[in-house]
Amino acid sequence: MGRSIVGNETSIALTCSVVAVTDLSVNTVQVSLQAADDVAVSYLAGQYLKLELPLDGDGAVTPLFYSIANRPNPMNPGSLEIFIYNGSELASRIIQYLRQLTGSHEQVTVTLPMGKAYLQTDLEKSHLLVAAGSGIAKIRCIAAEIVARSSNAQVDIYWSNRLAEDFYLLDEFRQLAEQYPNLSFTPILESVASGWAGRTGYIYRVIEQDFDSLHSTRTYLCGSPNMVYGTIDQLSMLGLSEDSCYSDVFEYAPRQQSVAV
What we know:
Layout: E1 4-6, E2 12-23, E3 28-35, E4 40-42, E5 48-53, E6 62-67, E7 79-85, H1 89-101, E8 108-114, E9 127-132, H2 136-149, E10 155-161, H3 170-179, E11 183-189, E12 199-200, H4 203-210, E13 218-222, H5 225-234, E14 245-246, H6 249-252
Parallel strand pairs: 1-4, 9-10, 9-13, 10-11, 11-12, 13-14
Antiparallel strand pairs: 2-3, 2-8, 3-7, 5-6, 5-8
Pfam families: NAD_binding_1 (PF00175)
GO biological process, one term: bioluminescence
Keywords: Luminescence, Oxidoreductase
């Protein structure tokens, strides 16, 4: 298995090879990384990493932060997966650079683990997992860890996107819902579109329709500050409170800095 880097509280830099860059949809890729030197990487489900790339050719590196999309894998403890949404010129450059490294001897620097919004709650409680867009990477990791620990855990997953083609993990989550009777999965398109037979609208409104109470529910959210704080506020009438919620937004965009919804 090799030596282990244990860093759930202290972040450690290591080098990784780019194993593959795989298209998940027209807009999103999955980047598969492998830690060098047979290192077994330790992190907790729901944490994120910092990827440093020399994109400008001047020797300076650009720090980039991505949720880790795969739960720790005891069969391949050096493997890491991230999702990148190709929604900007910078994202296009990042993806192009990583594609060029695929299969080469050149490596990238990764720092991990990072983030306090990892899975840390009692799995006897009901869990609500909420994602918008590529925030599904974190939720995928947490969901996989929950069912690996407790196959009977009550887990409700909601994933919102603007475009139907961005639901690139539909089959994976539907298979989870079939395999685990207490796990439900609800994809939500933000507005009505031709060919979409699923649910539509604001993510909090769909959740409102499905729950009478969220008082004892533990909630993990991944998305923009507006989505996270707006969802918490809108669902407060059902008993959802920030004290029972976990999100990276609480670290990088504390409540007083967020834009009101």
